[in-house]
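Need tokens for this chain, all 71 residues.
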Amino acid sequence: DLAIVIFSNGSITIVRGRDRDDIDCSEIARRLGGGGHRHIAGVQVRRRMIREKDLLLQRIINVLREYFEKK
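Here are the structure tokens for all 71 residues:
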């Protein structure tokens, strides 16, 4: 399991389930411009990106697609 929470202040949190050692949240966050730990990571984006949520969501989807295709 993987959860991505987008806050209105521009903060994005990426967290994985305890049973998903195969997912590295820090790698996903790094691809989005952030960082963190394997089990939880984060990204800070400009508020403009939050307002343009379609673009932000597409960017996140693309990063996830690339990440999981490499596995």
